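Residues and backbone
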Amino acid sequence: MDPPRTKYVLYTWGANSFGQLGQGHAEDQVEPQHVDYGQPSRKLRAIAGGGGHSALITESGELLVCGQNHKGQLGIGHVLEIVTFQLCPLPGNKTVQQVSCGWDFTIILTDDGQVLACGSNAFGQLGVSPQIKHTAEPHFVKSLGESVISIAAGLRHALAVTGSGGVYQWGTGLSSQAKRALNPQPVPAHLISQEPCLVPGMDQLTSQKVAAGSAHSVCLTATGDLFLWGSNKHGQLCSKESFLPLPSALDRSLLNGESVSAVYSGWTHLIAQTESGRIFTWGRANYGQLGRQGPTDDATSVDSVSSSETSLPSEVKTLYGATQIACGSEHNLAIVAAEMRTG
C-alpha cells in the first residue's frame, strides 16, 4: 500500500448573494461545500472573503477573485459581477503574499512588502488620494513608507503592520460609532484618518498580524496575545464596554489559557486558532457564521451580549487543525487537510 498523501480541498459556505462563494451560482449555503477554483493541481497559499466578494492566492502568488464588483473591488479593470474564481493581474506582474477584502474594496500585500488597494474609496478606506472615489485598477498605498508584513480590511477601514512592528489604521468606518461612544471626548486620530495613521498603545509590543471587522480591529502579537479595539455591539471584543477606542488585551483564560497562533475576523464575529490547533469562534451568529449552534435571533446588543453564549469563545471541533481560514462579512472559508490512501 502506498503511503498516505495529503489532498487540500477548498470549502465555502454562508451568504452568497453575489456569487462570492465561487460555486457558479448565487444561492446561500448553510453547510460547507467543495469548490473548484480552476487550478486543482495548485495549492492555495491564502484565502479571503469580503462583503460580497472572495479572493484566493495560489502557491505561485497569483490572485483569483469572484463575487460582487460594482465598485471595482475585484481589481480586474471592470465592474461586472463574477460567480467563479478568475485571475486578477497586478501591475508589474507582482506576486501576492496576502489579500484582505472589505465591504466594497480590497487590500493587497505583495511579496516585496508593498500594499495595493482597489474598489470604493468613499470613506478613505483605500489609503490613497481622496480625489479617487473608486477604482477597478489596484493603486499603491504610497504613504506606508516601509515594508509591510500584514494587512486587513474592515467594512470601511483598513490596517497594516510594518516590518518594524508598527500598527497603522486608515478609513473613517469607525468614526460615527466612536463619536457617539466617546462624546464629549475627542476621537483618536487613528479612527478618523483617511491615510495610514499609527495606532497608539502598541509601541512596546511586537505586532505580527492584524484583522478587522465592520467596526472593530484586532492585532496578534509575537507572544500570542490578541489586542482588540472598536465596536463591541455583538460581543466580538469580549468586553463589558460598548466601544474600545484603544487596543485592549483578550484574557487568555477565555481560550483555555492557550496562546493564539492565528486570528480572523468577519464583520461581527471572530475566529482564533490556538497553539494546539484548536479553533474558537465568538460574536454574532445570525447567519450561522460561528459554525456552531447558538442564538439565531438578532437581539444581541450591548445590553444583552453579556448573557449571550456567543459572546464568549467556544471551540468548533470539526475545524481542528485547519491549514487556512478566512471570514467574509457573514460567511467563512476553510481548508482542512485529509489523509488519502491509494493502491
